[in-house]
Amino acid sequence: MITEPRIPDPDGFYAALLAAHEGRSEAQSADLNARLVLLLANQCADQDVLLACIRAAAEEEPTTTTDDDNTP
Questions:
Q1: Is 46 among the domain residues?
Q2: Alpha-carbon gap, residue 1 to 38, rounded angstroms
Q3: What is the pTM of this model?
Q4: How far apart are alpha carbons 37 and 60 in whole angstroms?
Q5: How many structural domains comprise the chain?
Q6: Rounded to the nearest 10 degrees, what angle do helices 47-59 and 26-44 cross at?
Q7: What is the separation of C-alpha 64 from the centre of its chain, rounded to a whole number of angstroms?
C-alpha cells in the first residue's frame, strides 16, 4: 500500500471531488462516494492492496468538524 502523495494536482482533484458533490443530498453524496470507491478499487484490481487500504482507513480516528462544508 502506497501512502505517500502521488496525485500531481491534489488541490485540483479535491476541487473536482467537491464539485461532483455540489447540489446533492447527503444520501446522493454517499451513493456517489460508494460508486467512486468501487470504480477506484476496480482500477487498483489488487485485493491484497485493497484489503490493506480498508484496514488502514478503518484504523483512522474519526474527526469532528463544526463547519457545514459538505466535505465528502
A1: yes
A2: 17
A3: 0.76
A4: 17
A5: 1
A6: 140
A7: 17
64-67 long-range CB contacts below 8 Å, 24 or more apart? none
| Model confidence pLDDT, tens digit, residues 8-43 | 999 999 999 999 999 999 999 999 999 999 999 999
Cell 468538524 found at: 65
Q: Closest Cα partner for 2 from 62, 35, 46?
A: 46
Residue 49 lies in a domain: yes
Per the listing, cell 461532483 goes with 20
Q: To the nearest 10°, the Cα dihedral for 17, 62, 40, 11?
A: 30
Rounded distance, CA 9 to CA 5, Å? 10
Maximum pairwise Cα distance, the chain: 37
